[in-house]
């Protein structure tokens, strides 16, 4: 048979023989000599080259066979008790190779741990972004609130200034009735109470009120004017254009006795022990205004009664001469 037919059989035989030899070599003691290993290897190689099957190693030659254990071969040389030099003393023992226990490998990072770590990182990022947005929003709200307060304050001041302008303009354009006393032309010791319109709009007189009081001094007058009769409307509708005036009451020397209760009171008036005060009020409205706003002007005069001549001047407490 040719070599090419014996070569596959030899390879298969070798592969079947190697697993049986390896356990025996692994269990062979360290003191067993290996003088036959080179020869076996050479024989196997020569047999493979010649195309013959390799001769198996006898069981008696292997260290693991019972016969070899019962009848060990005589040592070729003196053995040493030093495990580093089994064949005898040696000058240079082989170096020891110590394999330390390797560090335990880290536990593998499971998919669940990776997902958990990613979720924690995402939560931290979301919390940071949320806190930053909250702080930014609060700052914007604070700035907007401050701007709104400043705007509201400026608007309030502007509205107040505009209201003052409107009020001042309305006051400047409204009618103003002022009451004064003056002598009656062509008559001695006779005086007239005159209401004059000093404003810029026509005025319509709505009602009139008057009263006479005899006291020692104006300090004895009531704090607020008290009228014995209710206010009355003028006999004829009275409209005063700007600059016009009208007489609302007259008083003369001959009327002194008629207002005194007895001659003794008239004598006291002549001696200036007592005084005659005439006071009243005029209620009027703005003829050009569309509303029903009414104004009032109070007046008070002191009639000075002399033995031969008389006079009349404005007097009385502030409440008797108020203007609205």
Please summarize the sheet with the most strands.
Answer: 5 strands, antiparallel
Number of β-strand runs? 8
Order of helices and strands: HHHHEEEEEHHEEE
**What do we call the CATH topology of the largest domain?**
Immunoglobulin-like
Structural class given helices, strands, pairing? alpha+beta
Helix share, percent: 25-40%
Separate helix tally: 6
Mean pLDDT: 76
N-to-C CA distance: 151 Å
Shape: rod-shaped
Q: What spatial order of strands do you see in the largest sheet?
A: 4-3-6-7-8
Which regions contain 5 or more consecutive residues with pLDDT less than 50?
Answer: 16-78
Instruction: Kindly report the oligomeric state of this protein.
Output: single chain
Query: Mind telling me which CATH architecture of the largest domain this is?
Result: Sandwich
Report the top-level CATH class of the largest domain.
Mainly Beta
Count of the domains: 3
